[in-house]
Amino acid sequence: MRVLVDPQVFTYGRCGLVRYYSNLCSGLAAKGYRLEVPLVISGSDFYRGWFGFWDRSAGAGRRHRLPRLLCRIMDFGTKRAYRRALKLGNYDVLLITSPGFEDDFLSNLGGRPFVMVVHDTMRALATVDGFEDPIGSTADRLAYLARRAAHLVCVSESAKRDLVALTGLRSEQISVVHSGLMLDVDAERPIAGELPRRFLLFVGERTGRKNFRGLLRGLAPLFARHAEIKLVCIGGPLTRWENDWVESVGAAGRVVTASASDPELSFLYRRALCLLYPSLYEGFGLPVLEAMASGCPIVTSRKGAIPEIAGDAALYVDPADASSIGAAVASILENSDLRNDLSARGRRQALRFPLDRMVDGIAKCLAEGATGATRAH
Q1: pLDDT reported for residue 259
Q2: Is 309 a domain residue?
Q3: What digits encode the pLDDT tens for the residues 201-232?
Q4: pLDDT tens, 264-303?
Q5: Can you give the pTM of this predicted structure?
Q6: Which of 153, 161, 236, 262 is the most buried (most CB within 10 A)?
């Protein structure tokens, strides 16, 4: 089967979506699928474009050391190559990946079928502080494309319920294929620089729905009682606004940021006291799965798909209640038996999400989609 893959997601940096589609493409290619990914240059080290300019010495999470203007020109080249591949039509099914649900491709599709994977539907969400993650018309564009796809896939039952509510589609029109474990937890490498002896771990964006502000509120009293504990955040440096918030809650000097390659991330999961993930909404929650597979205890919320993924292998909190977060983390710090129990439960739970099952599931959906046609539901 010939699959044309929308290359837009690969121009993004290191994030869960890029990891997902990179592993999916590699897995499909290994199973004999003929993939065309018209990508001039990648935005991360997960998947290489036609020109392999990724500079690994620049550190994980950073784009290649090319002039910004040249990167933009190459991204424009990717869009042109994608349009050309659409018009040529040398494929059986299109797999779209655009995180912003861009729909320009429809004018060049010529009635051929496309399949889309929906990772979540609530990219705009009011937080406990009253803020929102800005998305404009993303939800509307998602619904528009979902009603025209030959086949729809959600990464969790939770995401499927949300998509049904958003679009009005029938439940039987949507397949669920859980994401698989995409991090090699056994391949680890010490992170560059000095690491705190005892630390808590936060992985991912520090946007509103990830509840970073609420997390710091919950940790502040613990920092006062445990002078040696620090919070390691995987991502970019703290902004001056974030630094101001850290200082205002009494956590100055206790938050460390770092970039991490996959082996370095595995190293951190293995050594963290726990992963802190008090998210307000998740369509899946890849860091939760990665932490479980690494034997890292988890403090998280019951929002979105997280209970579906973590089961009984996590310590759940009320993400809107700072004292709930603080109490859970305190129990992790002070109870080694609890840490060991959660670690063992997590390793068992992670076995339910093998990567091969994800690839096989998406392959089946692509085959079913290829027999259909783009339509308005």
Answers
A1: 87
A2: yes
A3: 999 888 888 999 999 999 999 999 999 999 99
A4: 999 999 999 999 999 999 999 999 999 999 999 999 999 9
A5: 0.89
A6: 153
Average pLDDT estimate for 305-318: 97
Name the β-bridge partners of 94. 4, 114
β partners of residue 201: 232, 275
Nearest to 241 by CA among 212, 218, 215: 212
Distance CA 311, CA 298 (A): 11
Find tokens 């002896």 and name the residue: 197
* Residue numbers of the domain that contains 248: 198-350
Contacts 24+ apart (CB under 8 A), 71-78: 71/41, 74/40, 74/41, 74/49, 75/11, 75/40, 75/41, 77/40, 78/7, 78/8, 78/11, 78/38, 78/39, 78/40, 78/41, 78/49
Among 33-37, 95-99, 260-264, 347-351, top mean pLDDT goes to 347-351
Token output for 307: 């209970």
Specify whether 41 is located in the same domain as 64. yes
Between 68 and 187, residue with greater pLDDT: 187
153/155 Cα distance (integer angstroms): 7
> Do 212 and 202 form a contact (C-beta atoms < 8 A)?
yes
Nearest-angstrom CA–CA distance, 230 and 235: 16
Alpha carbon distance 128, 323 (integer Å) = 14
Compute φ and ψ for 234, nearest 5 degrees.
Answer: -90, 115
Indicate if 153 and 230 belong to the same structural domain: no
Please give the C-alpha separations between residue 8 and each of 78, 99, 195, 224, in angstroms, as whole numbers.
8, 8, 35, 45
